[in-house]
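Input.
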Amino acid sequence: MPLPSPNHRPTGPTGLFLLLLTGGLGLLTTGCQKTEYPLIEQKCGTCHSAEVVYQQRFSQQRWQQVLHGMKAVGLKVTRQEEERILEILLQHFSNR
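Output.
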């Protein structure tokens, strides 16, 4: 059975169930739009839905660990892109 594409989003009852199961209910009401964070969409959204990022609230240390882990499994970013991604994450998706 082929794997779904990274941008595959299940629809219908299955999609709603998965959204609720992963804690994505807030995404239905927060108004996060893909175009708000194009760098996140471009870089993080290649392997998984960017919504996975949008629903997190991490400390600076944890976001740095996450970025390091993503680079270890293939994320390709320049130093400037990494700094900008971290800046976005800390400004909009931090628990500080």
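Helices lie at 12-21, 25-30, 38-43, 51-54, 60-72, 79-92.
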